[in-house]
Amino acid sequence: MRPHSPSGDAFQHPRVSRRIAVQAGSIGLLGLGMNHLTALQALAAGSATPSVKLPGKARAVIFIFLSGGLAQHESFDLKPDAPEGIRGEFNPIDTATPGIRISEHLPLLAQRSRHWALVRSLTHPYNEHSQGHMAMLAGRTPMPTGFDANRPKPSDWPSIAAVAGYVMKGRRTNLPPAAILPEEIIHRTGRVLPGQFAGQMGAAHDPWFIKASPYNANTYGAYPEYGFHHERGKENPAALVFQAPNLALPQGLTSSRIGGRLALLKSMEGQRRELEHFAEVEKFDRHRQQAVSLLNDPQVQRAFDVQKAEPKEQDRYGRNQFGWSLLMARKLVEAGVSLVQVNLGNNESWDTHQSAFPNLKNFLLPPTDRAVSALLDDLEATGLLASTLVVMAGEFGRTPKISGLGNGKLPGRDHWGAVQTVWLAGGGVKGGTVIGSSDKIGGYPAADPQTPENLAATIYQSLGISREAHWRDPNDRPHFIYHADPIRGLT
């Protein structure tokens, strides 16, 4: 329905139907993805919000996902005594915890080792991106029946974010309990990687994607400060702009039709009033309530508008995709979101087959070190670190053997599911701890192997989700959430 101005100068809204209010409010006005329309339509048919009693106070998790696969040899599990073709070019440095050494290109995290622990023995059998994403993002090692590496399917396992969103309730607002930012994980060919969605739960329970980073098939990483191309090095196209979701114009409406900022403001306020009216007179489902919350909660708007944060705050995190994303994640946790998944690096930025050492040194590790360290500092300063678990992992690790690709390309490491290091902090984690180990060349677990199921259970436990909790598929069949015990020794 198009707004009209009969007098030519006074902008007015016609009365709108419930359906149009939902679409304009939660889709057009909020600038959210079209996946939300499916959820709204499905829930409008009458499906109920699950009710699960959680033990104690619900806590929060920030799940930092490094799509492409972080090289353990260049980050948290260096092997300086391994042969030349394995140990790599980076040197280990001491952390603040005696006996724990990490990459020289993570100096800020090294200073904060009292807050974090390492699991150096997480393992699964997959060396392919889609399978690795499914296993790590869903916390399930076996692939689901009918799995297709080229596209998500309704038969896929639900992601950890989808499960958390199903079971949890917003802690202080009507915000969704779980969110993913700043983008979906999309391969450079344009295919959307499986493992991110609700799968068997049904599309109505897809996680809430906050799309702040435009898809780009050629440039990677923490643009604009650290944007790069795996072969060409530093690269920051002008069209690649991080833009947090703000209030958008209604569908079919352009600024030229409004004729000024005042009319635009009146337009937004009119839709705000429409949503408030419907929220008061009808029993809106959780998606509609969340739409009203997004419009009216100043704390939520501040969480989105990270590029208008204090200059010193932006500088500490980094004025780039990594920094803004983790700053937004922290603000969303403060606003009441229980689980925030942060995809650090579009288009599998961490897939360092080639030019691994210069790309990690110059473009990937520095902004990660800076932003994650700032996140730890702020969570500690606000008292949230004790109740907020921060996890950092990828879909797999990298091969022990360095690959010389030839054709003038610099060396790197290939996909390796057999072992990776997972970094965890806060949420009761005992800092300065190392769980498990890899062998002498960083190829396989040597002690205390862990699985994606163990990591998922650790996240669910940190959220306060009961071991008896379950989710139901569209056929009302119950499914357990826990498939293993949480990682022992972290707390």
What does this protein structure show overall?
The protein is 31% helix and 14% strand. The protein is of the alpha/beta class and 491 residues long. The chain has 2 domains: 1-30 and 249-304, no CATH class; 57-246 and 311-480, Alkaline Phosphatase, subunit A (3-Layer(aba) Sandwich), CATH 3.40.720. Strand 15 (437-438) and strand 16 (445-447) form a beta hairpin.
Derived from helix and strand composition plus strand pairing, the structural class reads: alpha/beta
If you consult CATH, what is the topology of the largest domain? Alkaline Phosphatase, subunit A
**Count, helices:** 14
Which range best describes the helical content: under 10%, 10-25%, 25-40%, 40-55%, 55-70% or over 70%? 25-40%
- Sequence stretches where pLDDT stays below 50 over 5 or more residues: 1-58, 246-262, 279-284
**3D shape:** globular
Could you state the CATH homologous superfamily of the largest domain?
A: Alkaline Phosphatase, subunit A
CATH class of the largest domain: Alpha Beta
Give the tally of structural domains.
Answer: 2
Biggest sheet, open or closed, and with what strands and sense? 8 strands, mixed
Overall pLDDT, averaged? 82
Question: How far is the N terminus from the C terminus?
Answer: 55 Å
* CATH architecture call of the largest domain: 3-Layer(aba) Sandwich
- Based on CA atoms alone, the radius of gyration comes out at 23 Å
